[in-house]
Amino acid sequence: xxxxxxxxxxxxxxxxxxxxxxxxxxxxxxxxxxxxxxxxxxxxxxxxxxxxxxxxxxxxxxxxxxxxxxxxxxxxxxxxxxxxxxxxxxxxxxxxxxxxxxxxxxxxxxxxxxxxxxxxxxxxxxxxxxxxxxxxxxxxxxxxxxxxxxxxxxxxxxxxxxxxxxxxxxxxxxxxxxxxxxxxxxxxxxxxxxxxxxxxxxxxxxxxxxxxxxxxxxxxxxxxxxxxxxxxxxxxxxxxxxxxxxxxxxxxxxxxxxxxxxxxxxxxxxxxxxxxxxxxxxxxxxxxxxxxxxxxxxxxxxxxxxxxxxxxxxxxxxxxxxxxxxxxxxxxxxxxxxxxxxxxxxxxxxxxxxxxxxxxxxxxxxxxxxxxxxxxxxxxxxxxxxxxxxxxxxxxxxxxxxxxxxxxxxxxxxxxxxxxxxxxxxxxxxxxxxxxxxxxxxxxxxxxxxxxxxxxxxxxxxxxxxxxxxxxxxxxxxxxxxxxxxxxxxxxxxxxxxxxxxxxxxxxxxxxxxxxxxxxxxxxxxxxxxxxxxxxxx
Length: 538
Hints:
By secondary structure, the chain is mostly beta strands. The protein is 11% helix and 46% strand. The strands form four sheets. Strands 12, 13, 14, 15, 16, 17, 18, 19, 20, 21, 22, 23, 24 and 27 form a 14-stranded antiparallel sheet that branches. Strands 3, 4, 5, 6, 7, 8, 9, 10 and 11 form a nine-stranded antiparallel sheet that branches. Helix 1 (39-51) crosses helix 3. The longest helix has 14 residues, at 163-176.
C-alpha cells in the first residue's frame, strides 16, 4: 500500500504538472505499482539505471506509475511523463514547462536552455535553472527526452552550491542515451568545473530504449562503491555536444584511491563550487552577483532616520534672506515586488517617508524657535537589476511627490508675525543603485539620484498675519534635486549616511488678495538634509 514521504526541499519545477512533486512525493511499497507505467517512463528509468544516476533500489514509483522519485546526498530527483501537443517542437515544450515553473519562484529565476540533440534512439534537450530567493536557493538540472512521440523529463534539484553535481548527473544521462547521430545545432557549453580524482565505476554503455518493461541493472561491481555514495562523483566529463560519444568505455582498475580532500571553506569554496559553475553555465543575467544576493531584495522594508535639515532663501538684496534649521526624526517604509517573471530582475517599489521635528527660524525679521516643520514623501518606482560578477547595477525611475508643512505662526524676537505655508514638489527621480559584494553575507550599496522638478506649489496662509488678506498659491516651475546614500547591508539590515538636496528657482509673483498693491513671491531657495538611516527588510 503506498505511503507518502515528505521532502525537505520541494521542486519548484514540477508544481504545475499533474503529478505530486518533491513537496509530498509518493512511493509504492514492495515495488508494486497500481498502473502500468507509460513507455516513456520505462525509457527514463532505463536511462537512470544505465547512467548510474540512480540504482534500481533507490527508485520509488508514484501511485499512477507515471512518476519516479529518488534521493541521494541531499539531492532530490524525479522523472515523469509530460504532455506535448501534436506538431509541437521539443524546444517549445521545454520552454513552456520552464515558464510555468518560473511563476513559483519567489526570488530571481534564471534559466539556460540548450539545443535539441538527436541520438540513435531519441531526441534530448538539457536545461539548467535556479531560483535565488535568499533562502534555499534551489537549482535544478533537467533533461527533456522525446521518444516515439512521447515526452518525459528527468530532474535533479539541490542548492546553487550543488549545481555542479546535478549537472554532472545530467551529462551522464546524455552519454547513456547514446552517441549523437545528428547535432541539430551547436551548443555553447562551457567547460565543466574540474572534479577531484576519485575511484570511478565502469562507464555506462548506451542503452536500448522503448522496452515494455524496465531494465534492472546489477549493483556496482566494486565493493568500495555503494548504491548511495556520500560524495556524488561523475565517472567521466561529458564530451562536447557535436562530438560522437564512444560506444564503450575502458574499464577502470579497481584500486582504492585516497578520499579527496575536503572542499575549501569560505569564499574559496563558494567560488569553486556552485557559484563559479552557475556563472559559466547559466545565462548572462544570472551571475555571481545574483547568487550572492546583490540584486534588489523584494519584501517590506521599515526604518528610522535622523538628520539635520536646513532651508535657506536668498534674494538679490539678501543672502540668506531666511534660514530655517531643524533636526527631524524620520520614519521610512517601502514595499518591493517582482511581479513580472518574464522580465527578469525587474522590480516595482512603493516607498514613503515621514519626518518631523521643531525648527528654528532666523531672518532680518528676528528669530523664533519651536516651529512645526513636517515632511511627507511618497514615491512609485520601477527598476531593473543588471548583475555582473561581484557588482549589481540597478537603474530606476518613477514619479514622486514631496509635501512640507511649516507652521511659523506667532511673533519673532523683533515682533514680526509669522504664518503657515504648504510646499508640494512633484518630480521624476532618475537613479542608480550599485551594490558591491564584500563577503558572502555583506554588501555595500551606493545610491545616486537626480530629481527633475515637474511642478511645485507654495501656498501661504497670509490670513494668519492679517485677517483681511487671502491666501496665495505661488507656482514653481524650475528646479532640481540630488540625493544619495552609502549603505552597509547584511542579513536584511541596512545602515549608513544619506543626503537630500533641492534647489528651486523664484516662483511667479501674485498679488495678495485684499491688498492688490502688494505682491508675493517665493524666493530662490535651497534645502539640504544630511543624516543617518537604518532599515530592516523582511
